[in-house]
Amino acid sequence: MLATMDVTTALQQRVSTRRFRPDPVDEQTVRELLEVARWSPSGGNLQPWRVVVVAGEERQAVVDLARQTQAEGRDGGGEEFPVYPSPLHEPYRTRRFAMGEQMYAVLGIPREDKPGRLAHVARNFEFFGAPVGVFFVVDRRLGHGQWAHLGMFMQSLALAATERGLATCFQEFWGVVRAPLAEHFGLDEHHTVYCGMALGHADEHEVNRLRTERAPVEEFAELRGF
Ligand SMILES: Cc1cc2nc3c(=O)[nH]c(=O)nc-3n(C[C@H](O)[C@H](O)[C@H](O)COP(=O)(O)O)c2cc1C
Asked: Which residue among 169, 197, 199, 214 has the greatest number of ligand 1 atoms within 8 angstroms of its CB, and so is best to mutate?
């Protein structure tokens, strides 16, 4: 697939897509994305990333596994690495709340509609309809630095996908079932799933037009000595 987008445009165009068309993404394209993302930097060049990519029957198997784990009320190991600290402090709490409210407003699901909101969250376990799921695997023996470097790889993969007209959504939600996933993928005891990512073609749905806010540069950056 020909890639022609500059980095700034890719950064600005990448958004979390939460409704996908079923059109497949072929293996060659997925390999190309991984080929690009592997040039991400990492401290000491450790390259602390592993990925499992699923499509077709393999995708369906993890969708079923997640559903079954939830239906049985089993602990899937989510608490080992909680998504957010509890309680979440400011300014993060407000930002998280604002993002959620913005998203549910676009989806037309009011706060009182708990089942509606839960149903949306549950769609994480279907990759929001995307034909491909990517799982980012981390080695528990590594430290916070290596987790950050895995994050750089993740962003690279998403930008490479954007450049090729593909859509993505990172999904830490999959961490809720990291234990059954590890077993399913045959990971050794050191490795665990940190995050998932839906990959495919964006649907026309309203939710994909959600443009989240960002704090202005002055709020998070200090420029000294200029
Ligand atoms: C590591 C990571 C994990 C995320 N996990 C989820 C998730 O489980 N489900 C979801 O709907 N969005 C998830 N998101 C998407 C964020 O909500 C989104 O990136 C943020 O609101 C900014 O919006 P944007 O990606 O459209 O710019 C995740 C994002 C990141 C970077």
From this structure: 169
